[in-house]
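WARN retry 2 of 3 for item q-0093 after timeout on previous attempt; input resubmitted unchanged.
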Amino acid sequence: MFALTVRDRMMIAHSLPHPAFGPAQALHGATYVVELTIRRAELGEEGIVIDIGEATALLKDALADLDYTNLDEHPELAGTMTTTEALAKLVADRVAGRLPSGAYAGLDVTLREHPDAWATYTPRPLTAVVGTGGTTARAASGAGAPGPAGSRSDAGTLGFVTWDRTGPSGGNTYNGELVGALRAAGTDVVVHALPGTWPDPAGTDLAHLAEAFAEHPVSVVDGIVASGAPGPVADAVAAGRRVVVLVHMAAADEVGLPAADVVRREEAEGRALRAATTVVATSGAAARDLATRHGLPDVHVARPGARRAAPATGSAPPRILSVANLTPTKDPLTLVRALGELRDLRWSAVLVGSPDVDPAYASAVRHEAEGLADRVRLSGALAGGALEDEWAAADLLVLSSRTETFGMVVLEALAHGVPAVVGAGTGAVEALTRGAPGAGPWPPGPTLTGPEFPGAAVPTGGSRRADRRAAPMAHRRRVRTTWRRAALDRRAGCRAGT
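OK item q-0093 returned
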């Protein structure tokens, strides 16, 4: 068995209101050295257990809302005796939920407050099961090793089916948080990360999905998989299994698809969603859209949340930040072209996002940015501390997506106190406005005005109007102050651990 350990620290304040703790019943401080050990039976193709930077980021993210915090006031810990043992379990469960699906055998989290005494928690083992259907990370239920796929040992588990791409995205982040929350609540979850050409699967891909459904009485399946698989979804439901489809984005809404592919994806998705037991969308706007376009009687809504983060300090000149993969749907090319028309203003911009999803399009973005090399920087995909550094320097987020189901990155911006400009008519407007004091009932009007909104919703796409307004808005002191105040108000409303 191979293992990798990384270490971090956190400082907390808490009280332990039980006579057994004597003076520690009163509020006091504590400093912990926190160690995370991740194990796997065989090394990956890179010859490592896990990238050290990735493991460090996983631990840092799990500690972010605990460090420098009075745990007695932490909403997630209300009623919890925050002993060293309990905190070790909390951190371990969080990391377990965020580990990418793969061949990890298990993990430990150890908290050390003294060189001679420490506490360790080991979640139920994560056993890798590798077969024709790809890699499955199993949270074993009960004692002993889990049985083979499809055995009676899986009868009480919840299946979570997604694709095998683990790059940074709102959907992957949402899925990881959901699995982590379910496990922390005591649900045994088996994550099936299926390889394949989703949402346009081959026959073998559909067979692997059917095998995954057969293992569980209830499965939650990512819409990127389900939308191309109406047959397996219908067959599973007909066999008495429950299939819940979680839609992050309508499959036919990807920008740049040939017309025939749009029609095919739309038809397949409609059949899959109508066959499913339950359909869940991540925003009210998306739920209404799916209900209308596919004739669904009831689409449930499960909006994402955000953890409060360190407030951004901003930059001089103002820093415009984009956090989205370099794809036609996210449309960073329009953003770069619009910024090129604003050379008379002082600003800088950073585009954070993977160029690997659509390399040809990313090359076009890179070529366009070369003319603004002193103003625009393409950082590639970032996570952990490197991404936090970009948030710290940001004054404004611009999300130039042509279509957006919700826009989790907008919540992330507000969690840092950073205002945002988003596309009118996209689900990102819901992320920007929901919870704003005085915002009124959803949906809001076509324009956003007033000091209660931490940014603006403006037209997107080829008109460039959304992006052309970004830098001038960031320069107007009154607008910057008003938006910044509203964003900080929204940040204060972010609950740690949501």
